[in-house]
Amino acid sequence: MGKNTTKKLAIGTAIAAIAGYIAGILTAPKSGKETRKDIKDATAKGIAEAEKQLKKLHTELSDLLEQAKGRAKGLNDKTRSELDGLVEKAKNAKEKARELLSSLREGSAEDKDLKKAIAEASTAIEHLKKYLAK
Fold first, then answer.
1. pLDDT of residue 41
2. N or C: less crowded end of the chain, CB within 10 Å?
């Protein structure tokens, strides 16, 4: 098969898949009202899960920040500077998580922002745990 044939086949397959999906939705045994309810329920479940994960990360960051604060006393300047940098990143991640929790409740949080905040909070937690384990 040449490049053009493969490309045409891929485009044809994509179009057929989309047509099949649309036909499936239109001929589904559920009514429009039931389908909308299913979509709404799935969305609510997704929001609840994201909220749960953000709350967990927020709480874990709070705990680790308290541990870091206790550990900061008596450190030399270089070590203290390293810890201060990690603490600052953790505080920023914690604040973003708090803001996104509010946005999530209001219904204005975007998926990309949620993923970014979760990734930043997880990274901050990982770094603080590594530092505190020393």
1. 82
2. C
Tell me which architecture the domain covering 31-133 has in CATH.
Up-down Bundle (1.20)
- Beta-sheet strands, E only, within the chain: none
Mean predicted confidence (pLDDT) in 76-90: 84
> Quick one: tokens of 83?
């810890």
What pLDDT sits at residue 29? 75
Alpha-carbon distance 127 to 123, whole Å? 6
30: DSSP letter: S
Looking at the chain, the whole-number percentage of residues with pLDDT higher than 90 is 0
Is 77:14 a contact under the CB 8 Å cutoff? no
Per residue in 92-128, pLDDT (tens digit) is 888 888 888 888 777 777 777 877 888 888 888 888 8
What is the rounded CA–CA span in Å between residue 17 and residue 75? 61
CB 129 within 8 A of CB 64: yes
The answer to whether the beta carbons of residues 132 and 71 sit under 8 Å apart is yes
Alpha carbons 43 and 75: distance in angstroms, whole number? 47
